[in-house]
Amino acid sequence: MTPDLMDAGAERVARHIAFEQTLHTESGGRAAGYGRHMTPGEVDVTHGRILYLDDVSVSFDGFKAINKLSLDIAPGELRCIIGPNGAGKTTMMDIITGKTRPDEGTVFFGSTIDLLRHKEAEIAQLGIGRKFQKPTVFEQLTVFENLELALKTDKGVKSSMLFKLDSEQCDRLAEVLHTIHLESSVLRMAGNLSHGQKQWLEIGMLLMQDPKLLLLDEPVAGMTDEETARTAELFLSLKGKHSLMVVEHDMSFIRTISEIVTVLCDGSVLAQGTLDEVQADERVIEVYLGR
Ligand SMILES: Nc1ncnc2c1ncn2[C@@H]1O[C@H](COP(=O)(O)OP(=O)(O)OP(=O)(O)O)[C@@H](O)[C@H]1O
Ligand SMILES: [Mg+2]
What we know:
Order of helices and strands: HHEEEHEEHEHHHHEHEHEEHH
Number of strands: 10
Oligomer: single chain
CATH class: Alpha Beta
Number of helices: 12
Helix content: 25-40%
Number of domains: 1
CATH topology: Rossmann fold
Radius of gyration: 20 Å
CATH architecture: 3-Layer(aba) Sandwich
Bound molecules: adenosine-5'-triphosphate, magnesium ion
Shape: globular
Distance between the termini: 64 Å
Mean pLDDT: 86
CATH superfamily: P-loop containing nucleotide triphosphate hydrolases
Structural class: alpha/beta
Strand content: 15-25%
Protein backbone atom coordinates (compact mmCIF):
# COMPACT_ATOMS: atom_id res chain seq x y z
CA MET A 1 0.00 0.00 0.00
CA THR A 2 1.38 3.46 -0.84
CA PRO A 3 1.82 6.03 1.96
CA ASP A 4 -0.91 8.14 0.32
CA LEU A 5 -3.36 5.28 0.46
CA MET A 6 -2.39 4.51 4.05
CA ASP A 7 -2.96 8.15 4.96
CA ALA A 8 -6.31 8.18 3.19
CA GLY A 9 -7.31 5.01 5.02
CA ALA A 10 -6.11 6.35 8.39
CA GLU A 11 -8.04 9.56 7.80
CA ARG A 12 -11.24 7.63 7.03
CA VAL A 13 -10.80 5.60 10.23
CA ALA A 14 -10.15 8.80 12.25
CA ARG A 15 -13.29 10.41 10.79
CA HIS A 16 -15.29 7.32 11.64
CA ILE A 17 -13.98 7.31 15.24
CA ALA A 18 -14.71 11.05 15.61
CA PHE A 19 -18.24 10.43 14.38
CA GLU A 20 -18.72 7.52 16.78
CA GLN A 21 -17.55 9.74 19.63
CA THR A 22 -20.17 12.36 18.82
CA LEU A 23 -22.77 9.70 19.58
CA HIS A 24 -21.46 8.99 23.10
CA THR A 25 -23.51 11.67 24.80
CA GLU A 26 -25.93 10.91 27.62
CA SER A 27 -28.75 10.76 25.12
CA GLY A 28 -26.64 8.70 22.74
CA GLY A 29 -26.87 11.68 20.36
CA ARG A 30 -30.50 10.85 19.64
CA ALA A 31 -32.38 13.41 21.71
CA ALA A 32 -30.42 16.37 20.45
CA GLY A 33 -30.05 15.18 16.88
CA TYR A 34 -33.76 14.32 16.51
CA GLY A 35 -32.85 11.49 14.16
CA ARG A 36 -31.31 13.87 11.65
CA HIS A 37 -28.51 12.21 9.73
CA MET A 38 -25.17 13.83 10.58
CA THR A 39 -22.23 13.40 8.26
CA PRO A 40 -18.91 12.55 9.96
CA GLY A 41 -17.21 15.64 11.39
CA GLU A 42 -20.38 17.73 11.20
CA VAL A 43 -21.37 19.70 14.30
CA ASP A 44 -25.09 19.67 15.07
CA VAL A 45 -26.15 23.32 15.36
CA THR A 46 -29.83 22.71 14.63
CA HIS A 47 -30.59 24.11 18.09
CA GLY A 48 -28.86 27.36 17.16
CA ARG A 49 -25.84 27.02 19.44
CA ILE A 50 -22.29 26.05 18.51
CA LEU A 51 -20.93 26.37 22.05
CA TYR A 52 -22.85 25.81 25.24
CA LEU A 53 -21.50 26.08 28.78
CA ASP A 54 -23.82 25.53 31.73
CA ASP A 55 -23.09 25.87 35.45
CA VAL A 56 -19.36 25.30 34.99
CA SER A 57 -17.05 25.64 38.00
CA VAL A 58 -13.38 24.99 38.64
CA SER A 59 -11.29 25.63 41.74
CA PHE A 60 -7.53 25.89 42.09
CA ASP A 61 -6.44 25.18 45.67
CA GLY A 62 -9.86 26.18 46.96
CA PHE A 63 -10.04 29.38 44.86
CA LYS A 64 -13.02 29.38 42.46
CA ALA A 65 -11.51 30.65 39.18
CA ILE A 66 -14.73 29.72 37.33
CA ASN A 67 -17.92 29.91 39.34
CA LYS A 68 -21.20 28.56 37.93
CA LEU A 69 -20.43 29.97 34.49
CA SER A 70 -23.17 29.68 31.88
CA LEU A 71 -22.66 31.06 28.40
CA ASP A 72 -23.52 30.06 24.84
CA ILE A 73 -22.77 31.35 21.37
CA ALA A 74 -24.52 31.02 18.02
CA PRO A 75 -22.98 29.56 14.85
CA GLY A 76 -21.16 32.25 12.87
CA GLU A 77 -21.23 34.66 15.80
CA LEU A 78 -18.27 36.84 16.80
CA ARG A 79 -18.56 37.01 20.60
CA CYS A 80 -16.38 39.38 22.55
CA ILE A 81 -15.41 38.59 26.13
CA ILE A 82 -14.14 41.34 28.41
CA GLY A 83 -13.45 41.53 32.12
CA PRO A 84 -10.82 42.42 34.71
CA ASN A 85 -7.54 40.55 35.15
CA GLY A 86 -8.15 37.26 36.90
CA ALA A 87 -11.84 37.15 35.85
CA GLY A 88 -11.39 33.65 34.43
CA LYS A 89 -11.34 34.42 30.68
CA THR A 90 -8.29 32.33 29.85
CA THR A 91 -9.39 29.59 32.25
CA MET A 92 -12.71 29.42 30.39
CA MET A 93 -10.79 28.84 27.13
CA ASP A 94 -8.67 26.20 28.91
CA ILE A 95 -11.90 24.39 29.83
CA ILE A 96 -13.40 24.59 26.32
CA THR A 97 -10.20 23.24 24.75
CA GLY A 98 -9.74 20.41 27.26
CA LYS A 99 -6.60 21.86 28.88
CA THR A 100 -8.38 22.20 32.23
CA ARG A 101 -11.13 19.89 33.46
CA PRO A 102 -13.93 21.65 35.36
CA ASP A 103 -15.07 20.28 38.73
CA GLU A 104 -18.67 20.46 37.58
CA GLY A 105 -20.87 21.68 34.75
CA THR A 106 -21.68 21.00 31.12
CA VAL A 107 -19.67 21.99 28.04
CA PHE A 108 -21.07 21.10 24.61
CA PHE A 109 -19.87 21.75 21.06
CA GLY A 110 -23.07 21.88 19.05
CA SER A 111 -25.84 19.89 20.71
CA THR A 112 -24.27 16.44 20.54
CA ILE A 113 -20.55 16.71 21.30
CA ASP A 114 -19.80 16.63 25.01
CA LEU A 115 -16.39 18.31 25.17
CA LEU A 116 -15.75 17.03 28.69
CA ARG A 117 -15.45 13.54 27.21
CA HIS A 118 -12.66 14.55 24.86
CA LYS A 119 -8.94 15.14 25.22
CA GLU A 120 -7.23 18.37 24.14
CA ALA A 121 -5.94 16.96 20.82
CA GLU A 122 -9.34 15.46 19.96
CA ILE A 123 -11.06 18.79 20.62
CA ALA A 124 -8.70 20.50 18.16
CA GLN A 125 -9.54 17.82 15.60
CA LEU A 126 -13.26 18.26 16.17
CA GLY A 127 -12.86 21.83 14.87
CA ILE A 128 -11.99 24.14 17.77
CA GLY A 129 -8.87 26.21 17.08
CA ARG A 130 -7.16 28.24 19.77
CA LYS A 131 -4.83 31.19 19.55
CA PHE A 132 -2.78 31.94 22.66
CA GLN A 133 -1.58 35.47 23.32
CA LYS A 134 2.05 34.91 22.32
CA PRO A 135 2.64 34.08 18.64
CA THR A 136 3.96 30.55 18.25
CA VAL A 137 5.03 30.32 14.61
CA PHE A 138 8.11 28.47 13.38
CA GLU A 139 10.57 31.34 13.03
CA GLN A 140 13.10 29.42 10.89
CA LEU A 141 10.49 28.49 8.29
CA THR A 142 8.87 30.62 5.59
CA VAL A 143 5.28 31.83 5.73
CA PHE A 144 4.40 29.20 3.12
CA GLU A 145 6.09 26.40 5.07
CA ASN A 146 4.33 27.42 8.29
CA LEU A 147 0.94 27.26 6.60
CA GLU A 148 1.80 23.98 4.89
CA LEU A 149 2.92 22.51 8.20
CA ALA A 150 -0.43 23.37 9.76
CA LEU A 151 -1.98 20.66 7.58
CA LYS A 152 0.46 17.99 8.71
CA THR A 153 0.28 18.25 12.46
CA ASP A 154 -1.60 15.00 12.92
CA LYS A 155 0.69 13.01 10.63
CA GLY A 156 3.81 11.00 11.46
CA VAL A 157 7.34 12.04 10.49
CA LYS A 158 7.55 9.77 7.45
CA SER A 159 4.23 10.76 5.94
CA SER A 160 5.04 14.43 6.69
CA MET A 161 8.19 14.12 4.60
CA LEU A 162 6.24 12.59 1.74
CA PHE A 163 3.36 15.02 2.19
CA LYS A 164 2.39 17.09 -0.86
CA LEU A 165 -0.42 19.59 -1.03
CA ASP A 166 -3.29 18.48 -3.23
CA SER A 167 -5.03 21.06 -5.42
CA GLU A 168 -7.77 21.69 -2.88
CA GLN A 169 -5.16 22.35 -0.18
CA CYS A 170 -3.21 24.65 -2.55
CA ASP A 171 -6.40 26.64 -3.11
CA ARG A 172 -6.99 26.82 0.64
CA LEU A 173 -3.43 28.01 1.26
CA ALA A 174 -3.82 30.75 -1.37
CA GLU A 175 -7.14 31.81 0.14
CA VAL A 176 -5.70 31.89 3.67
CA LEU A 177 -2.68 33.93 2.50
CA HIS A 178 -5.08 36.44 1.02
CA THR A 179 -7.24 36.53 4.16
CA ILE A 180 -4.28 37.19 6.47
CA HIS A 181 -2.71 39.79 4.12
CA LEU A 182 0.56 37.91 3.76
CA GLU A 183 0.53 37.17 0.00
CA SER A 184 3.54 39.38 -0.63
CA SER A 185 5.47 37.79 2.27
CA VAL A 186 4.91 34.17 1.33
CA LEU A 187 8.63 33.34 1.02
CA ARG A 188 9.82 35.42 3.97
CA MET A 189 11.11 33.75 7.10
CA ALA A 190 8.45 33.94 9.79
CA GLY A 191 11.13 35.19 12.21
CA ASN A 192 11.49 38.36 10.09
CA LEU A 193 7.80 39.28 10.24
CA SER A 194 6.46 42.04 12.48
CA HIS A 195 4.66 41.05 15.70
CA GLY A 196 1.30 41.69 14.04
CA GLN A 197 2.20 39.65 10.96
CA LYS A 198 3.27 36.74 13.17
CA GLN A 199 -0.10 36.89 14.90
CA TRP A 200 -1.87 36.81 11.51
CA LEU A 201 0.31 33.92 10.38
CA GLU A 202 -0.66 31.94 13.45
CA ILE A 203 -4.32 32.70 12.80
CA GLY A 204 -3.69 31.55 9.20
CA MET A 205 -2.25 28.29 10.52
CA LEU A 206 -5.46 27.74 12.46
CA LEU A 207 -7.54 28.60 9.38
CA MET A 208 -5.70 25.96 7.32
CA GLN A 209 -7.49 23.41 9.52
CA ASP A 210 -10.82 25.11 8.75
CA PRO A 211 -11.99 25.30 12.40
CA LYS A 212 -15.67 25.76 13.12
CA LEU A 213 -14.93 27.69 16.30
CA LEU A 214 -11.92 29.94 16.92
CA LEU A 215 -10.89 31.05 20.40
CA LEU A 216 -8.60 34.09 20.40
CA ASP A 217 -7.00 35.29 23.63
CA GLU A 218 -5.90 38.95 23.52
CA PRO A 219 -5.07 38.84 19.79
CA VAL A 220 -4.17 42.54 19.40
CA ALA A 221 -1.98 42.90 22.51
CA GLY A 222 1.31 44.50 21.41
CA MET A 223 0.05 45.41 17.93
CA THR A 224 0.42 48.85 16.34
CA ASP A 225 -2.79 50.81 15.71
CA GLU A 226 -2.61 49.94 12.02
CA GLU A 227 -2.14 46.23 12.74
CA THR A 228 -5.04 46.36 15.21
CA ALA A 229 -7.29 47.93 12.55
CA ARG A 230 -6.31 45.24 10.05
CA THR A 231 -6.98 42.53 12.63
CA ALA A 232 -10.47 43.96 13.17
CA GLU A 233 -11.08 43.71 9.40
CA LEU A 234 -9.74 40.15 9.42
CA PHE A 235 -12.06 39.05 12.24
CA LEU A 236 -15.08 40.69 10.61
CA SER A 237 -14.26 38.79 7.41
CA LEU A 238 -14.12 35.47 9.34
CA LYS A 239 -17.45 36.05 11.09
CA GLY A 240 -20.23 33.98 9.55
CA LYS A 241 -17.85 31.43 8.04
CA HIS A 242 -16.51 30.57 11.48
CA SER A 243 -17.71 31.20 15.02
CA LEU A 244 -15.30 33.32 17.04
CA MET A 245 -14.77 33.97 20.72
CA VAL A 246 -12.44 36.93 21.23
CA VAL A 247 -11.01 37.98 24.61
CA GLU A 248 -9.60 41.52 24.61
CA HIS A 249 -8.89 44.47 26.89
CA ASP A 250 -8.64 46.93 23.95
CA MET A 251 -12.03 48.67 24.03
CA SER A 252 -11.69 50.52 20.71
CA PHE A 253 -10.95 47.18 19.04
CA ILE A 254 -13.97 45.65 20.78
CA ARG A 255 -16.10 48.57 19.59
CA THR A 256 -15.09 47.92 15.98
CA ILE A 257 -15.84 44.19 15.94
CA SER A 258 -18.48 43.51 18.58
CA GLU A 259 -22.13 42.61 18.46
CA ILE A 260 -22.75 40.90 21.80
CA VAL A 261 -20.20 41.50 24.55
CA THR A 262 -20.04 39.24 27.60
CA VAL A 263 -18.45 40.64 30.75
CA LEU A 264 -16.81 38.05 32.99
CA CYS A 265 -16.00 38.76 36.61
CA ASP A 266 -15.05 36.40 39.43
CA GLY A 267 -15.53 33.41 37.15
CA SER A 268 -19.07 34.09 35.99
CA VAL A 269 -21.07 36.35 33.67
CA LEU A 270 -21.58 39.78 35.21
CA ALA A 271 -23.34 41.39 32.23
CA GLN A 272 -24.07 40.80 28.57
CA GLY A 273 -25.32 43.00 25.73
CA THR A 274 -24.04 45.51 23.20
CA LEU A 275 -20.86 47.36 24.18
CA ASP A 276 -22.92 50.49 24.90
CA GLU A 277 -25.23 48.51 27.16
CA VAL A 278 -22.48 46.87 29.20
CA GLN A 279 -20.48 50.11 29.39
CA ALA A 280 -23.51 51.80 30.93
CA ASP A 281 -23.96 49.03 33.51
CA GLU A 282 -23.01 50.31 36.98
CA ARG A 283 -21.66 46.93 38.10
CA VAL A 284 -19.39 46.74 35.03
CA ILE A 285 -18.15 50.32 35.58
CA GLU A 286 -17.36 49.47 39.18
CA VAL A 287 -15.39 46.27 38.62
CA TYR A 288 -13.76 46.98 35.28
CA LEU A 289 -14.27 50.07 33.18
CA GLY A 290 -14.12 52.59 35.97
CA ARG A 291 -10.63 51.57 37.03
N1 LIG B 1 -3.53 26.52 36.76
C1 LIG B 1 -3.85 27.40 37.71
N2 LIG B 1 -3.53 27.20 39.00
C2 LIG B 1 -3.86 28.07 39.95
N3 LIG B 1 -4.54 29.21 39.73
C3 LIG B 1 -4.90 29.48 38.47
C4 LIG B 1 -4.58 28.60 37.38
N4 LIG B 1 -5.07 29.13 36.23
C5 LIG B 1 -5.66 30.28 36.59
N5 LIG B 1 -5.56 30.49 37.91
C6 LIG B 1 -6.14 31.62 38.65
O1 LIG B 1 -7.48 31.76 38.23
C7 LIG B 1 -7.85 33.13 38.11
C8 LIG B 1 -8.35 33.39 36.71
O2 LIG B 1 -7.23 33.45 35.83
P1 LIG B 1 -7.35 33.70 34.28
O3 LIG B 1 -5.98 33.58 33.75
O4 LIG B 1 -8.37 32.81 33.71
O5 LIG B 1 -7.86 35.20 34.22
P2 LIG B 1 -8.06 36.14 32.96
O6 LIG B 1 -9.48 36.62 33.00
O7 LIG B 1 -7.63 35.45 31.72
O8 LIG B 1 -7.10 37.37 33.30
P3 LIG B 1 -6.21 38.30 32.33
O9 LIG B 1 -7.12 39.38 31.80
O10 LIG B 1 -5.18 38.88 33.26
O11 LIG B 1 -5.60 37.44 31.27
C9 LIG B 1 -6.62 33.93 38.48
O12 LIG B 1 -6.76 34.31 39.85
C10 LIG B 1 -5.48 32.96 38.30
O13 LIG B 1 -4.41 33.26 39.17
MG1 LIG C 1 -6.09 35.77 30.35
